Amino acid sequence: MTDSTAGDSEAADLETFRVETRAWLEANCPPEMRKPATSDADVFWGGRSAKFSSEPQRIWFERMRDKGWTVPDWPKEYGGGGLSAAEHKVLRAEMGRIGARPPLSSFGIWMLGPALLKYGNEAQKKEHLPKIAAGLIRWCQGYSEPNAGSDLASLQTRAESDGDDFVITGQKIWTSYANYADWIFCLVRTDPTAKKHDGISFILFDMASKGVTTKPILLISGYSPFCETFFDNVRVPKSHVVGTVNRGWDVAKYLLQHERAMISGMGERGVGRPLGQIAADSVGTDAAGRLDDAMLRGRIASFDVDEAALAACAERAVDLAKAGQAHPAFSSAMKYYGTELNKRRYEILMSAGGVDALEWESERSRQGARPRAWLRTKANSIEGGTSEVMLGIVAKRILDLPGA
């Protein structure tokens, strides 16, 4: 078979997959799941104590789970769909075409899963990956500490060897959804005498373990997913270390690439209404049907162009990653651009809403949710690495600037 014939066959197979996928989604995605989530409570995170917010949400999740499409590109033996990179791209496009929500949101999917696939041993993969895919365990991330945020490698949470276990003592902060999580993937210092980037291990343990406590942190928005997390002599089997003991920084860096790529996605509109349509609710339109504010029209037009550029870069990043050609620092550029773009989105929404956008009484009302969401975006350029840190990484590792 010639290269041309093989290419034609692959294209035909992919088109068949597209047709079949489109038909399946049309038949199986409930109408209610083709609309944007209205609040965090309207997103299904899975976990031991998970409850569905509606019957359509349950139906959609279970149908996608049974197809392996909560994690379409993971191997089937770990609960995934086994799709190729091209097939996964088609699935994303077809879900976007009908505005289908992701069936499951999970730090296990976005961050821990890729790290386990690369660094986990077979027992760890078989133990954790199928549960992540099935939404059975909800995970949180134990990285930042009160004195180790942007300088994460300065972390001091220690894990002391005691027979077959480590005994963990210390504190984490900004631990998103720790008060709801079942398990945590955590960075701990296992060799206090080593250089700060060495002597760190990446370990997994149950949040129900004796000695683990959490305390929510209230933000200016009136709502927060963040917590302080405390470890008081928490005993964890050494078999729960992912990768090599004292080489956890390698795992941590790899996981951060996926975290930053995930956070950058907030810059994309997704399945929500276009910004111009939302602004028209408050500003109105002129006789030609255009937004009745020329300055605001210009800001939105510029934003829409940048939003489309981010979406194109995100697709390219996925393709490069699947081909093994991605630059390890590209996720930092995406994280910077996506989070700054999301902040711009809400600045425009606040401007378009005028005085009405300042209404605060109900965080679930259409207007009341806007200022809370606007304030929440201020954390976008801090979490997962500050914008300043991201620019430093881009300057040093991508642009190779002198003195960076």
Automatic annotation (TrEMBL):
It comes from the Bacteria. InterPro entries: Acyl-CoA_Oxase/DH_mid-dom, Acyl-CoA_Oxase/DH_mid-dom_sf, AcylCo_DH-like_C, AcylCo_DH/oxidase_C, AcylCoA_DH/ox_N, AcylCoA_DH/ox_N_sf, AcylCoA_DH/oxidase_NM_dom_sf, Mycobact_Acyl-CoA_DH. One of its GO terms (molecular function) is flavin adenine dinucleotide binding. Its cofactor is FAD. One of its GO terms (cellular component) is plasma membrane. Keywords: FAD, Flavoprotein, Oxidoreductase. Residues 48-135 form the Acyl-CoA dehydrogenase/oxidase N-terminal domain. Residues 246-399 form the Acyl-CoA dehydrogenase/oxidase C-terminal domain. PANTHER family: ACYL-COA DEHYDROGENASE, ACYL-COA DEHYDROGENASE FADE29. Belongs to the acyl-CoA dehydrogenase family. This is Acyl-CoA dehydrogenase. It comes from Bradyrhizobium hipponense. The lineage of its organism: Bacteria, Pseudomonadati, Pseudomonadota, Alphaproteobacteria, Hyphomicrobiales.
